[in-house]
Amino acid sequence: MVIKQDGSQMPFEPTDFRVGLDIGICGRSIRVHDCDQYTREYFVNINQPQCEAQPCPEDAFIDSCKPIPQKKDPELLEFLEKKLGGGRRPSEKQFLDNDRKVLRFFVKSGELPFVFHYFLADDTVEIREVHFANDGRDSFAVYLRRQKLPETFQVNQPGQQFIGDRYLTCNEIQYDKPLVAYGRVFNIQGVDKFTQDYYLCQHQRHFPLGDIEQPKPRDPVVVQVPPHNGFGDEVDSLGYVYKLIAKKPKIDFFKYVDNDKKILRYTARFNTKVPEDVDRRFIVSFYLADDTISIFEPAQKNSGIIEGPFLERRKYKNVDNNMQFITPSDLPIGGDIKINGYNFHLLGCDDYSVKYLATHTFE
Known about the structure:
- The protein has helices spanning about 35-45, 60-65, 75-85, 90-100, 195-200, 235-240, 255-260, 275-280, 350-360; strands spanning about 1-5, 10, 20-25, 30, 100-110, 110-120, 125-130, 140-145, 180, 185-190, 265-270, 280-285, 290-295, 310-315, 315-320, 325, 335-340, 340-350.
- The termini are far apart.
- It is of the alpha+beta class.
- The protein folds into three domains: about 1-65, Roll (PH-domain like), CATH 2.30.29.170; about 100-200, Roll (PH-domain like), CATH 2.30.29.170; about 250-360, PH-domain like.
- About 20% of the residues lie in helices and about 25% in strands.
- The strands form five sheets. The chain has a six-stranded antiparallel β-sheet.
């Protein structure tokens, strides 16, 4: 024990305090783990340098006295935020973030095409039918109305759950996995550009691009035009061949107005050796307004044939010119022409026809 000059007692010597060693004081064991710079210099001067500082052992009581930060409960924070007038419900946030964002899948069930829509706003689906002209199916636009698609949908016994509590979500859809809607299987054929980008960004999945598969065009049917039966005008009869409800054929209005009452008249006879028909004469009238022809037979003395119309006014075809309608270029003076099965030889024409043919050309 050391007694100081003022009479106080000092139970230990300074050299008893060593860094890294324990010392007993009043029944307690105290570990010396460090000292200040002055103390270190003192021990260096007495040739007893202290050891390096050691870490101070942690006190469990002091650690228990430290305030523990309160864990922030997400639900509590959301409740407090809503209580203060802020925050959004998860469904509302999903709706606002994904409103009008729709995933579009082109699917097939058997051979029938469908369009599968997945609405990201509320996780509902819609299946629409695809129709084409003359596909033989009733044109119902919606096959499955917009709703959440349950994963299981079997009907159980009374008192039990009738439908599954899990519904299809977009992260469960895969290209090689068919979509099942109430027992019907839909195979994915492709997606649109937005759906492809969405799955690549959100789920790192690749869906090939696709579109509605159009049906193959039918083989063209060759319209067989029956021969004209002689009743009515041939152009009018063709209207019933190409259309169920025939329309009146349109005329060339300007040609009709410019050539109204312009008639080319020819004299003709039969190309025949029959004695009764050799002396018969005819007046062939060609109407420039609508390219129609009428033939009139004037009276001949002692011929026994009554004068009058020989052929009614209508268009006639030239059998020697690929069955094209007769034009003034097919009526040469001194030439022959077959009209409605009769072979005529043109003898001449009137002065108006001569002047008109000299100043006009026809195709």
